[in-house]
Design brief:
The complex is a heterotrimer of chains A (328), B (186) and C (442).
Chain A lengths: L23 H18 L13 E6 L4 H13 L3 E6 L11 H10 L4 E6 L4 H8 L3 E7 L5 H15 L6 E5 L6 H12 L3 E5 L7 H4 L14 E3 L2 H5 L4 E4 L4 H5 L6 H8 L3 H6 L5 E3 L12 H4 L6 H20 L7
Parallel strand pairs in A: 1-2, 1-3, 3-4, 5-6, 5-8, 6-7, 8-9
Chain B lengths: L3 E6 L1 H18 L6 E6 L3 H16 L5 E4 L29 E9 L3 H11 L6 E9 L11 E5 L6 E6 L1 H4 L3 E6 L9
Parallel strand pairs in B: 2-3, 2-4, 4-5, 5-6
Antiparallel strand pairs in B: 1-8, 7-8
Helix pairs in contact in B: 1-2
Chain C lengths: L3 E11 L4 E10 L2 E6 L8 E5 L4 E4 L1 E6 L12 H10 L2 E6 L10 H14 L3 E4 L15 H6 L5 E2 L8 H14 L3 E3 L4 H4 L4 E2 L2 H6 L3 E2 L1 H18 L3 E3 L5 H12 L4 E5 L1 H5 L36 H12 L5 E2 L28 H10 L5 H8 L1 H7 L14 E11 L18 E11 L2 E5 L2
Parallel strand pairs in C: 1-4, 1-5, 6-7, 7-8, 9-10, 10-13, 11-12, 13-14, 14-15
Antiparallel strand pairs in C: 1-2, 2-3, 5-16, 16-17, 17-18
Helix pairs in contact in C: 4-7, 7-8, 8-10
Classes of the chains: A alpha/beta (328), B alpha/beta (186), C alpha/beta (442).
């Protein structure tokens, strides 16, 4: 038997900083292998030696039990050694600077570093400073590529394809790194994307027609401020978490008004296609951006999103560890 | 560099070899009651299915056929790219059973080692055996096949390809001589 | 009794005397002695062969951060002036955001003395507008004026309180000195680290819109009109600001402005750190979030950047100033949000600025004027010219020499420049201060 590896080598990323550098083949590759990973999760012995001897370091500067545990599980099932480094919370103290931490991690000879940091660009900084491969688990308001991959997987698993489907993303586009990565992921996979939310939460250059410039990657993305109009014929609805700080910073008059104009409820859900998927990256503000009955209703795949997280991250870790000695 | 292809087995010859292997499995294990066949992706799977069908024809026993992808058990993950994995499906409890691994070509033995590790994660067979359609030599590990369709001595710059109706549309075995040194070692 | 120096066969460009010709220039006793065809048989005269080079008055930089006292790890008066000399500058004005800040005579005197003992070129002090630059109470401007400041600024920060700015303009008008304001409305720029626009959006960074500068520029122009005080807008960066200054001058309002070499030549694309073949639509690489491109005001988009050249040509922009802001690696090797604002400019200023000449956007004489006689007029001094009898501050440069910027070789402690590794055309060959070599590169 020939291992059809060299010819099928279709994952071409060294780091996973955001989905903007992924081709649709890279994305498909990760999603396709996720099924095999899910099978491992169903076994009695949930361990395979794929990453044996590799060291994965998780470096989380924002508290996030769910994502960190998801990565840790994924790495351990693949038999990697996992070291968790978490900051006490203050990443701005010069003594605990990211640079110093990076040097310490270098000494650990980490093969892969998974970093979550409140500053956009922190993973890029690490990628420059260290020899290790870097996975971005969420940086500031810039990107959250693994969340987007698991969203794409969930969509594909439930409605078969992503291409040509109408996906509506509702809410705080400006500050949501999940929305940003999904914009890249969905457009690369050929989806029809509609962004809907208060104008103060949509980036100014998205509103002002600058996307007409030739070659703009988001030229085809639609902006809609009226939710009912946006939801017509939607195949997938992604509700984003609305953070309380937005109201304090003057973006919104009140959460109440936000909920009335942009909250996802049964009446609005009925406007979308029958069986349209309801998604949310979590954690949810039930009653604000999404009603409880919708969040836990028949069309919601929110729990599935969480469950797929481990398998998708396993697939990603596997693809990144493979071919490490190749010139990628 | 043009590929030089030489056919060394035709469909009839392949069928005869599989028939013989099926009988040998039955003979060696005193029947098919305790046997599970596990085919290695890709071409080991249809071979295992054919063997199971043959055994059912000879002795009326349905021998279960599993499918195995060893992508996560390879020892050369850093050297090769990331393959696309196919489903692994081990159909029944393999504890105490005789697991016969089926593959198309036996070469370095590394795939088989990975397969043994993978199968051990599913349970504890009483024994494992190996059946291959072609043994082309150049072992890098102390692994040997219990059932061999044909021994084909080869040079390292040659490649042995098994083609099967279920995947390639025709049954044949060919040796290709090429300049490409990246023939994967299995 | 210093040696006499004969700078031979250079192309002498001196906008203040309307001179642009190949000639010889003789320096005797630290002063310009003679210009013309000079054949000296005097053995005490050292000959500097400037054939093929351009000879101009020493450049004057109205806006420079020397960091001493208080942040000597970033720069000292010694290293900063050496850096200036290497950039062809013979006069720099030291911004007062030191620690302690230059809001009292004692600190100003400290800087002046350091410059005399450890500096290699002329350093003129700028005083704070407010005590401690806190923006609450006026500093003792009269005493600072006596100490020799050439103007007042809280640079680094704007004078946010409009009423205080009004008082400052009125008070300083009485002293005949300008208020140099860093225009930035804090509420609009709060938390921002680069220009607002597509690039900031895709990098997930909060941006500073053009309005943050323009709103305050408009305010200051109006206050200048109201008070008759002299306001100078530091480091302008937007087309909107430029238009307002143009209109204000047309109406006779006492406003001036400056532009930096980087706002004339770089855009916010520099933060992406991409090659020439890539665009801002291409995937980000690990090189994105380049902190050497983090500066305040931020590098703007291409249309704002390009229009600055027009401002030079029609004299809306009074002169070029570097806003040299050296930082140590501690302040720049970190995330973009954490990084300090500022670029180390002195040693690349000429090369940057000459790109406008090489690209045929601005004439050579105009560029020299903006580095010499125009800043001199702003100071109301008789510097910035090669007239006979004036002090011999002279810069010699090669107009066409192409060289690679290597910041590790800078005299400045600040190696923070987005130009590191890039090529510039135009290089200083020698700088004379009071007739003495302060820099030489043969």
């Amino acid at each position: 038997m020939t291992l059809e590896t060299a010819s099928q080598q279709s994952f071409g990323q060294k780091h996973v900083l955001d989905l903007d550098s992924f081709t649709s083949q890279d994305i498909t590759h990760v999603l396709d292998n996720t099924l095999a990973m899910e099978q491992v999760l169903d076994r009695e012995i949930r361990k395979v030696p794929a990453l044996r001897g590799k060291t994965v370091v998780t470096l989380f500067y924002e508290s996030s039990t769910r994502t960190r545990v998801s990565f840790e599980q994924a790495a351990k099932i693949l038999s990697a050694d996992v070291i968790n480094v978490s900051s006490s919370g203050s990443s701005t103290k010069k003594g605990e600077s990211l640079y110093n931490t990076a040097l310490t991690i270098q000494a650990m000879q980490a093969d892969i570093i998974v970093i979550r940091h409140p500053h956009s660009g922190a993973p890029h900084f690490l990628a420059r400073q260290l020899r290790s491969k870097v996975i971005n688990a969420g940086d500031g308001t810039h990107a959250h590529p693994t969340q987007s991959l698991l969203d794409l997987y969930t969509i594909r698993k439930n409605i078969g394809t992503i291409e040509g489907k109408k996906i509506v993303i509702i809410g705080d586009i400006m500050y949501s790194r999940v929305a940003r990565s999904n914009l890249w992921g969905l457009t690369k996979m050929g989806a029809r994307v509609v962004l809907c939310g208060p104008q103060t939460l949509i980036p100014n250059d998205f509103l002002n027609g600058h996307r007409t410039e030739e070659g703009h990657p988001f030229a085809a993305v639609e902006i809609q401020t009226d939710l009912d109009t946006a939801l017509k014929d939607a195949d997938v609805i992604m509700a984003l978490r609305l953070q309380l700080e937005r109201q304090k910073a003057g973006h919104l008059p009140s959460l109440r008004e936000y909920s009335q104009t942009y909250g996802l409820n049964a009446r609005r859900l009925a406007i979308a296609k029958d069986g349209a998927l309801v998604m949310h990256p979590g954690p949810m503000n039930e009653g604000v951006e999404i009603e409880t009955d919708i969040a836990h209703g028949a069309q919601s795949v929110i729990e599935e999103q969480v469950k797929s997280g481990v398998a998708v991250r396993m697939s990603l870790l596997y693809s990144m560890a493979a071919g490490q000695n190749l010139e990628i | 560099m043009p590929l030089i292809e030489k056919r060394i087995q035709n469909p009839v010859q392949i069928e005869r070899a599989l028939t013989r292997i099926s009988h040998e499995i039955l003979e060696r294990n005193g029947g098919g009651d305790n046997v599970v066949l596990v085919g290695m992706h890709s071409r080991g799977v249809p071979l295992a299915q054919r063997i199971s069908t043959a055994i059912e024809r000879f002795e009326g026993i349905k021998v279960p056929v599993g499918k195995l992808d060893i992508g996560m058990y390879r020892d050369d993950i850093s050297e090769k790219g990331s393959p696309l994995m196919k489903p692994t499906d081990i159909p029944s409890d393999i504890n105490g059973k005789t697991v016969v691994i089926i593959d198309d070509v036996l070469y370095t033995g590394r795939s088989i080692r990975a397969a043994m590790d993978a199968i051990s994660d599913f349970g504890r067979p009483s024994q494992m055996q190996l059946g291959v359609l072609v043994d082309r030599g150049h072992r890098e590990l102390p692994i040997r096949a219990d059932y061999v369709g044909k021994n084909v001595p080869t040079a390292k710059d040659e490649d042995v390809q098994v083609r099967l109706m279920e995947i390639d549309g025709a049954d044949e075995i060919v040796i290709t001589t090429n300049n490409n040194d990246m023939g994967d070692k299995t | 009794m210093s040696k006499s120096i004969l700078i031979k066969s250079g192309r002498i460009i001196d906008p203040a005397s309307d001179r642009d010709e190949v000639a010889d220039l003789l320096i005797v006793d630290g002063k310009i002695s003679e210009i013309g065809q000079i054949n000296s048989k005097d053995q005490n005269v050292e000959v500097y062969d400037a054939k093929g080079f351009v000879v101009t008055p020493g450049f004057i930089d109205i806006h420079c951060h020397l960091r001493e006292p208080g942040e000597e790890y970033k720069e000292t008066i010694a290293t900063g002036t050496k850096s200036a000399a290497a950039g062809g500058f013979t006069t720099v004005c030291a911004m007062p955001n030191t620690n302690p800040p230059m809001d009292t005579k004692s600190v100003v005197d400290f800087v002046k003395n350091k410059a005399l003992t450890e500096g290699v070129i002329r350093v003129l002090p700028i005083g704070c507008v407010t005590k401690n630059s806190h923006g609450k109470e006026l500093s003792e401007m009269s005493e600072l004026a006596d100490a020799g400041v050439i103007g007042f600024s809280d640079d680094g920060k704007p004078v946010s309180d409009a009423n205080l700015m009004r008082q400052a303009l009125t008070y300083s008008a009485g002293l005949g000195l300008p208020i140099i304001n860093h225009c930035e409305v804090p509420e609009l720029a709060d938390g921002a680290s680069m220009n607002e626009g597509w690039i900031a959006t895709r990098l997930g960074l909060k941006g500073m819109p053009n309005s943050a500068e323009e709103v305050m520029a408009a305010r200051d122009i109006s206050l200048s009109e109201l008070t008759g005080g002299k306001v100078h807008l530091a480091h302008i960066s937007t087309a909107g600001t430029l238009d307002m200054v143009r209109e204000a001058k047309r109406r006779g309002i006492n406003v001036t402005c400056e532009v930096t070499p980087h706002h004339l030549t770089l855009t916010d694309e520099a933060v992406l750190s991409i090659g020439d073949e890539s665009t801002s639509f291409d995937p980000l690489t690990a090189n994105a979030y380049d902190t050497t491109a983090k500066v305040n005001p931020p590098l703007r988009n291409i249309s704002d950047m390009s229009i600055m050249a027009n401002g030079i040509n029609d004299n809306t922009i009074d002169f070029i100033a570097t806003d040299h802001a050296p930082h140590s690696s501690v302040d720049k090797i970190c995330t973009f949000q954490e990084a300090a604002f500022g670029i180390s400019v002195l040693e690349t200023a000429l090369g940057s600025v000459l790109s406008l000449y090489h690209n045929k956007k601005v004439e050579l004489g105009t560029l020299i004027k903006k580095l010499t006689s125009d800043p001199a007029s702003f100071l109301g001094s008789n510097l910035g010219t090669l007239k006979i009898g004036r002090t011999a501050d002279v810069t010699v440069f090669d107009l066409d020499e192409t060289w690679r910027v290597n910041s590790s070789l800078f005299f400045s402690k600040g190696k923070n420049t987005p130009l590191d590794g890039t090529s510039l055309t135009g290089r200083v060959k020698a700088t004379f201060y009071g007739g003495e070599y302060v820099y030489r590169n043969d």
